[in-house]
Amino acid sequence: MTAAEGNQLMSVHPNDLKFIVELEKQSFCDLRVVNNTEHHVAFKVKTTSPKKYFVRPNTGVVQPWDSCTIRVTLQAQREYPPDMQCKDKFLLQSTIVAPNTDVDDLPADTFTRGSGKELEECKLKVFYVSPSSAQGNAEDEGLKSSSDKSPDSDFNVQQLKDERDAAVRQTLQLQQELDFLKRRRQHRNDPGFSITFAALVGLIGIMVGFLLNLSLSSPPPPPPME
Q1: What is the Cβ-side half-sphere exposure of residue 110, based on CA atoms within 13 angstroms?
Q2: Rg (Cα) of the chain, in Å, rounded?
Q3: How does pLDDT run across 36-83, given as a tens digit for each residue?
Q4: Which is it for strands 119-129 and 27-35: parallel, antiparallel or unpaired?
Q5: Global confidence as pTM
Q6: Is the Cβ–Cβ distance between 70 and 51 less than 8 Å?
Q7: DSSP 174-198
Q8: Residue 187 Ramachandran class (φ > 0 left, ψ -120 to 50 alpha, else beta)
Q9: What are phi and psi of 119, to 5 degrees?
Q10: Considering only CA atoms, which of 161, 47, 45 is closest in space to residue 103?
C-alpha cells in the first residue's frame, strides 16, 4: 500500500519524501503521521538505505486521533547522484497496541506479521531536488499566489489610491489659497488674516496627516520582474 492510497490506521503527509540535495550539506524532510482510530497505534519507519538517512523518531506510539511528526534527515553527500535520481524507499508500519503502551515496552515482534495481528504498511518514495529547481518552484508558487488575488483586494487598493489622490488635490488647493493670502497681506492690512491663516495651516496639517496614514496603509508595490 502506498501513501496515496491511504491507510486505515494511520495517514501520512506528504505522500513522499523530497530532499534538496547540496554537496556537503544535510537535508531533511518532515512527515506527519495521523492516528485515524480510537486506539493506540504504534509505528515504525524502515528504509532501504539506513546509512544514508537519520530518522527520529523511527518508532513511536500515537494516541487516539493524535498525530506525530517524524523528521527524516539525508546525510551530507559528497557527490550528486546520476541525473538526481533516487531508488531509495521508506516503509511505515503501523499496528494497534494496548492503551497506555510506552514505546520502550513494545515487544520485539510488534511489527512482525502473524497470529492474526493487523499490520499495515505504507510505502514512501524518495525524490531528490536540486537547489535551483527548488528555488524555481518557490518563485512559481509566489507568482501563482499573486495572480490568484481576489478582485475585492484589487478594488480596495484602487479605492485607497483614489482617496489619496483626492487628498493631494485638496492639499494643493489649500496651499494656493494660502499663497494668495500671503500676497494679499503684503498689499493691505487684513485684520481677519491671522485667524484665516491659522485655520488654513491647521487644515493643511490635518490633510498631511491623512496622506501619511493612507501611504502607510497602502500595500507595497510588487517587486519588478527580472
Answers
A1: 22
A2: 33
A3: 999 999 999 999 999 999 999 999 999 999 999 999 999 999 999 888
A4: unpaired
A5: 0.58
A6: no
A7: HHHHHHHHHHHHHHS--TTHHHHHH
A8: alpha
A9: -125, 115
A10: 45
